[in-house]
Specification:
14 strands; Rossmann fold; 5-stranded parallel β-sheet; DUF3326; 3-stranded parallel β-sheet; 30% helix; alpha/beta; Slr1287 protein
Length: 336
């Protein structure tokens, strides 16, 4: 959706790191934490796929933190042999160097056939020609191995030379891959209720000395898989029984939601707007959506920046009334 902050290659990681210091638990989307070859372990962050976030916000699913997941790999049959080996070497490197647990992998029985699209609003989305092949591969992993989370590597179109890709690489515009990636992970999470994230398989791009720092993490190697494996290794399990106790978190446990001010129309935000959670809307994180809380009758606390949002979270944590930070402090009034 073209977020000015968080719409690129893990460029919201510094924001997530800062917010994690003023809360007990930070629940966030993989795209916030994924930086291609780069990642940063945040001990109290929960890495939750978008469909699962929606179900969590609705109160249907809980999130149970875990220490280590066995990750199963699905590779698209459409990936060329050399590119497939690059991804398998990343997986082996993650096992040997990071100590992650991976199961045997599966290759889809048909090419997935990913196609990229842009909506009229300017947000990215996409289609998959053979979704049943993806689901068969996931079912095989889950029934024949001990996989607790799934990483998908699909062959994406090489759109070298397109204006959309050029804009993204230079730090403005929309991530052309993210919408199609969401379709892939949604399919698996909805069908199997396990953590899932996606890494696109692409041919290396030609060198461009003017790449934006926000996009630069995607220029460092042959794959985007390292951050996905790291995130999935500790992704929480999804609990579907609301009476479950222990460490499982439910939507009622959420005290605050931080969102771009112009991105208030999503399913999760609409669900949280019916709860007691404080919704903090960040104005300087512009998006393509232009959907504001006030337009939907949602009560939000407007702040200019994520630094100011962190201040609101600190005040909430300390139990301080936000009116104290205004120069014109209101008087109490006698009830009639």
């Amino acid at each position: 959706m073209g977020a000015a902050l968080g719409g690129y290659a893990g460029d919201a990681l510094p924001i997530a790191r800062a917010i994690s210091q003023v809360c007990d638990r930070l629940i966030t989307h993989p795209n916030v934490l994924n930086g291609a070859q780069l990642y940063y372990p945040i001990p109290n962050a929960l890495y939750v796929e978008g469909y699962a976030l929606d179900r969590f916000a609705q109160g249907d699913w809980g999130l149970t933190p875990v220490g280590n997941n066995a990750i199963g790999l699905i590779l698209d049959q459409g990936i060329e042999e050399d590119l497939r080996w690059r991804h398998l070497q990343v997986a082996d490197g993650a096992r040997a160097t990071l100590g992650l647990t991976l199961t045997d992998y599966v290759v889809t029985d048909e090419p997935l056939g990913v196609e990229l699209r842009l909506s009229d609003s300017g947000t990215s989305w996409g289609t998959i020609a053979n979704p049943e092949s993806l689901l068969r591969a996931a079912d095989k992993l889950l029934t024949q191995t001990q996989a607790q989370a799934i990483a998908v590597i699909a062959r994406f179109p090489d759109d070298v030379g397109t204006q959309v890709l050029a804009d993204y690489r230079h730090g403005h515009g929309v991530d052309p891959l993210a919408g199609a990636e969401a379709v892939i992970s949604h399919l698996i999470v909805r069908q199997f209720q396990v953590p899932c994230a996606h890494a696109p398989a692409l041919s290396p791009l030609p060198l461009d000395p003017d790449i934006s720092p926000r996009s630069a993490a995607e220029e460092l190697g042959y794959t985007f898989l390292p951050c996905v494996l790291m995130g999935l290794s500790r992704a929480p399990h999804y609990q579907r029984f609301p009476n479950a106790q222990g460490q499982t978190l439910w939507s009622r446990d959420v005290n605050a939601v931080v969102v771009p001010a112009s991105a208030c129309g999503g399913s999760a935000l609409m669900s949280f707007s019916q709860s007691s959670a404080r919704i903090i809307a960040v104005e300087n994180n512009s998006t393509q959506l232009e959907v504001y809380g006030e337009d939907l009758g949602i009560s939000v606390v407007r702040v200019n920046s994520y630094l100011e949002a962190i201040g609101v979270l600190c005040a909430d944590r300390a139990g301080i009334n936000l009116d104290c930070f205004q120069p014109d402090f209101p008087l109490l009034h006698r009830l009639p």
